[in-house]
């Protein structure tokens, strides 16, 4: 995924950019970057690997050397960025969040169009840096805003862009508004952010959410709309259920509140279905499952508890060992049980989603190993039937890896693919058969999913504005 943060102000903004970018660390695990501009120093930039060390620790020596009233920062799950560019449009620094499905075609076209005769630097592994490709597309036009729009229209996928010039910022939200881009305002400047809490914590008030495809220029004195928002929006519904930060709001809906509402609907659905097990505790798979569980507990009257707690002080989220064996070991070592809340207890756990199922199976085996009598599982979203083609989303995966698709193949082979809509509906016969097969396979005491309507109701945004492709396959 990834996220970005930027500031333009009438005072030095380095520390705002440092902390504001750090507040996006939950969105990516690979690279972090910062760039600032001052008249005396010009552009200063640093990029670091954040796979094993958090952003703040990596950049604390850099920020002492930096100065500037404007700057940008990013957390990236893939490419090193931001990139410094010198072109016929002048010097600028660019960072992006998005996904380019037609990367090869765009590269081939760029290199063969006769105009550029340019080149791209290869990253290790032979891939071209997607942010460099976006910059190349921008430079094909006569101005930065026209170039941003040209790049967005050429890209199959999605692309949000933040650019720093000599004191100004250009911010552009992707054409369908799949991810948020919000603007905060203080008495001496503006901030641009994926996460609203990042600028709020730094003393900026909410100014606006950019609309889909909206492009703006920001100076410390004001915001100018260069391309107005488009009518059609498809913001990612997973922002609320899973990867958005709890304190943030998107389209006016706070993540934490949405999760309480989602848990409440799950509890109401269980009550309607006459789910009658005597549950001792409702719990969430931390971190994002926890507020869903609070919503469930508040509605059902069943006590909320934390039968296991993640040990995070020495295992930051960004710790990603190369070997799968060590990753699994780390995941296991992080889960620390509270024995008396597990042994002989009937537990109902809520997770934000079930993707491959392996993690959830590990959690349930762990709870049973500590003596849990029953472990009932609820997913805060409907069965995931399709991989994401719009974002570099850590939970998007090849469709064959999804537990739903694997189970459907096991149930009826290739012919099952003709009935995906039915399988996605857990009230249908096929939906029931898939759910019960997953439940048995992962050794849950019971399993149920949030309905699509329940998910949409708990977000509360006009359904036509939400992307729900993961669950429906409908664009
Ligand atoms: S396909 Fe899924 S993950 Fe991707 S933008 Fe849509 S809802 Fe979000």
Fold topology:
Blueprint: E1 3-9, H1 14-22, E2 31-38, E3 42-49, H2 55-65, E4 70-76, E5 83-87, E6 90-100, H3 103-112, H4 130-138, H5 144-154, E7 157-164, E8 169-172, E9 182-186, E10 189-193, H6 196-201, E11 205-209, E12 215-219, E13 222-227, E14 235-236, H7 238-243, E15 249-250, E16 253-254, H8 255-272, E17 281-284, H9 289-300, E18 308-310, H10 324-334, E19 335-337, E20 346-351, H11 358-369, E21 374-379, H12 403-412, H13 420-424, H14 429-441, E22 446-449, H15 452-459, E23 466-467, H16 469-472
Parallel strand pairs: 14-23, 17-20, 20-21, 21-22
Antiparallel strand pairs: 1-4, 1-10, 2-3, 2-4, 5-6, 6-7, 7-8, 8-12, 9-10, 9-11, 12-13, 15-16, 18-19
The chain binds iron/sulfur cluster.
3D structure, described in words:
The longest helix has 18 residues, at 255-272. Strand 5 and strand 6 (90-100) form a beta hairpin. Helix 8 (255-272) crosses helix 9. The chain is built from 16 helices and 23 strands. The protein starts with a strand and ends with a helix. The relative contact order is 0.10. Helices cover 33% and strands 25% of the residues. Strands 3-2-4-1-10-9-11 form a seven-stranded antiparallel β-sheet. A six-stranded antiparallel β-sheet has the order 5-6-7-8-12-13. A four-stranded parallel β-sheet has the order 17-20-21-22. It folds into two domains: 3-233, Aminohydrolase, N-terminal nucleophile (Ntn) domain (Glutamine Phosphoribosylpyrophosphate, subunit 1, domain 1, 4-Layer Sandwich), CATH 3.60.20.10; 253-472, Rossmann fold (3-Layer(aba) Sandwich). It has helices at 14-22, 55-65, 103-112, 130-138, 144-154, 196-201, 238-243, 255-272, 289-300, 324-334, 358-369, 403-412, 420-424, 429-441, 452-459, 469-472, and strands at residues 3-9, 31-38, 42-49, 70-76, 83-87, 90-100, 157-164, 169-172, 182-186, 189-193, 205-209, 215-219, 222-227, 235-236, 249-250, 253-254, 281-284, 308-310, 335-337, 346-351, 374-379, 446-449, 466-467. With 475 residues, it is an alpha+beta fold. Bound molecules: iron/sulfur cluster.
